[in-house]
Specification:
5-stranded mixed barrel, 5-stranded antiparallel β-sheet, 8 helices, disordered N terminus
């Protein structure tokens, strides 16, 4: 071959190819080619692929899980040409690399068509497993092994099985596969076939597969249905495990099939007779019944009247006297109670019950046992700005208004005289059963005080009458006085102790002293009010009328003096 004195780049490449075995030899590198086995020796297969020299490939690269390589002299095989010639002058060939390249070509076609591929799980790596796809190695994430988490993958190792290609990157040599996708697709196909054989209302046997707080999953022969806790029984079921266990064979009815989501709803109570049929006739309004408390909430308590029939006792119907109290402080779960039927709604499956109505109304009982005028005793439960609440028989409270606590002092001062927990006596002034109110009085029990119906002593007095009273107590606000020894008691206010300011001093009187005063009126308890000032004014008017007018020239002192003189005669 002639060469120019100054060879070009193409001439140099031609010379190099000639030295390496020809222009075609260089095109072998990086390719999968066919070759012929010319000899088998020392665990190696000698293969001729048409190059200047033969190559050697270990027999183990031809073995698939056993020692049988299946080769003999003359066998045709595909190998990958890594280099045309190494330092020893031999071609560098690889059967594994050829298999991988062939596998990649096949996988890329199948990936594009969305086909499943077959492989074997052969190793564990961080986050998942390695899969042999007929020469190509793929990654199987742990989350893609099965539909549900798998604790032991050993039974799946080295077992030929289908996978779905999720991702391929030949340049980086990355392949990601999923076994779960194949299972879900297969399961969906099976579900569709099974669902086509099922119908709403159909009764079928199933096996309890799993139990949750809200129900149980039942295997219907390859497809699961949900048996909700509310469809297990007409009676209250707090947890599914109270009715069924995992592995139980149960008879269920198909309640609903959702063709879009392929979800199946099941029921067991639908196979029983409905206890709500004819419930209105069985539990008429006003009927008194016994039941068991099954559940307690903030708004009331549920009472089971019979299996499958529950009624609600609203918190407002639980107690006559305990208001704004949590139902759990009145009744407890499993407690037997008597209730009264208040309302029945068969359509909504609701029964309203009353707990307090089944018991005697304490307000009626109190009114019957303690008519107006009865003296009662009790503990001061609470003191408010307008009076005292006193605990009475039957767990009811009565109220003493501030104006009925004591005579002769303001309501605020009277309230200050008593404290919570103190035992007091009072008289019943009024009982209003409908409004649940009991009015009490404490001052009416004081000595000489009129009774609720107008006690003796009060009726002997009349407005405008002047009487002699005895001072019982001297106070800053006036005098507490009594008519006679056992007559009515009353009060003379400070401003009524005299016409002049100097006379309006309570300290000028002493306990036990007697004084004339005029009856000026009666309070709502028919207790008299007295006034010295009113008596003085009345006597002055009377004297003027009897002894003359001040216009005659006589002084008022003269007139009064004459009147007093005449009265002395």
């Amino acid at each position: 071959m002639a060469t120019s004195p100054n060879p070009s780049r193409d001439d140099f490449e031609a010379l190099l190819n000639e030295q390496l075995g020809g222009a075609d030899d260089g095109g072998f590198e990086g390719r999968v080619v066919k070759g012929t086995v010319t000899a088998i020796e020392n665990g190696m297969a000698i293969i001729d692929v048409g190059l200047k020299s033969e190559g050697r490939v270990g027999l183990k690269e031809f073995s698939r899980g056993d020692d049988d390589h299946g080769l003999s002299v003359g066998s045709e095989v595909e190998v990958y040409v890594d280099r045309v010639e190494n330092a020893d002058g031999e071609a560098m060939l690889s059967r594994d690399r050829a298999r991988r390249e062939a596998a990649w070509d096949k996988l890329e076609n199948e990936f594009g068509e969305g086909k499943r591929v077959e492989g074997r799980i052969f190793g564990r790596v961080k986050g998942g497993f390695t899969v042999d796809l007929d020469g190509a190695v793929a990654f199987l994430p742990g989350s893609q092994v099965d539909i549900r988490p798998v604790r032991d993958v050993t039974p799946l190792m080295e077992v030929p099985q289908p996978f779905q290609l999720l991702k391929m990157d030949r340049r980086r040599g990355n392949i990601v596969v999923s076994r779960r996708a194949v299972l879900e697709e297969t399961r969906a196909e099976q579900r569709s076939e099974l669902i086509d054989k099922l119908a709403e209302g159909q009764v079928i046997d199933g096996v309890v597969k799993n139990i949750t707080d809200y129900g149980a999953f039942v295997d219907l022969g390859g497809i699961d249905g949900l048996l909700h806790v509310t469809d297990m029984s007409y009676k209250r079921v707090n947890h599914p495990s109270e009715v069924i266990n995992i592995g139980d064979t149960v008879k269920v009815q198909i309640v609903r099939i959702n063709s879009e989501t392929q979800r199946i709803s099941l029921g067991m109570k639908q196979l029983e007779s409905d206890p709500w049929d004819g419930v209105a006739a069985k539990y008429p309004m006003g009927a008194k019944l016994s039941g068991t408390v099954t559940n307690i909430t903030e708004y009331g308590a549920f009472v089971e009247l019979e299996p499958g029939i529950e009624g609600l006792v609203h918190v407002s119907e639980m107690s006559w006297t305990k208001k704004n109290v949590h139902p759990g402080k009145i009744v407890s779960t499993s407690q037997e109670v008597d209730v009264l039927v208040l309302e029945v709604d068969s359509d909504k499956r609701r029964i309203s019950l009353g707990l307090k109505q089944a018991q005697g109304n304490p307000w009626d009982e109190f009114a019957e046992k303690h008519p107006v005028g009865t003296i009662v005793e009790g503990e001061v439960k609470n003191a408010t700005e307008f009076g005292l609440f006193v605990g009475l028989d039957g767990d009811v409270d009565g109220m003493v208004h501030m104006s009925d606590i004591a005579w002769g002092i303001s309501g605020e001062d009277a309230l200050a005289l008593h404290r919570k927990g103190e035992e007091v006596k009072a008289i019943v002034l009024d009982v209003d059963v409908e409004k649940e109110r009991i009015s009490l009085g404490m001052k009416q029990l004081e000595k000489g005080a009129p009774t609720a119906d107008g006690a003796a002593g009060a009726e002997t007095l009349r407005k405008g009458q002047t009487v002699t009273v005895t001072v019982l107590e001297v106070r800053d606000g006036g005098l507490e006085v009594q008519v006679g020894d056992d007559g009515a008691t009353g009060f003379i206010k400070r401003s009524d102790l005299g016409r002049d300011r100097d006379e309006q001093r309570p300290d000028r009187f002493q306990t036990g002293s007697k004084v004339d005063a005029m009856v000026t009126g009666f309070d709502r308890s028919k207790k008299p009010n007295f006034s010295i000032k009113a008596r003085q004014i009345s006597e002055e008017k009377e004297a003027v009328a009897q002894f003359g007018s001040s216009d005659s020239g006589a002084s008022l002192g003269d007139i009064l003096g004459e009147a007093l003189k005449k009265s002395d005669d």
